[in-house]
Amino acid sequence: MSKFTRRDFLKTGVGVGAAAFVPVGLGRAAALTATAGARPRVVSSGNGIRATQKAMEILKAGGDPLDAVIAGVNIVEDDPDDMSVGYGGLPNEDGVVELDSSVMYGPTHTAGAVAALRNIKNPSKVARLVMERTDHVLLVGEGALKFARAHGFKEEDLLTEQSREAWLRWKETMSDVDNWFPPKTEGLPAEMRSVMQTHGTINCIALDGSGRLAGVTTTSGLSWKLAGRVGDSPIIGAGLYVDNEIGAAGSTGRGEANLQTCASFRIVDAMGRGLSPEQACLEACKAVAAKTKLIPRLCDVQGRPKFGLDFYALNKKGEFGAGGFYQGGRYAVHDGVDNKLRDVAYLFKNPGDGR
Question: Which residues, 6 or more positions from 276, have their beta carbon under 8 angstroms from its beta carbon?
Answer without folding.
Answer: 315, 319, 321
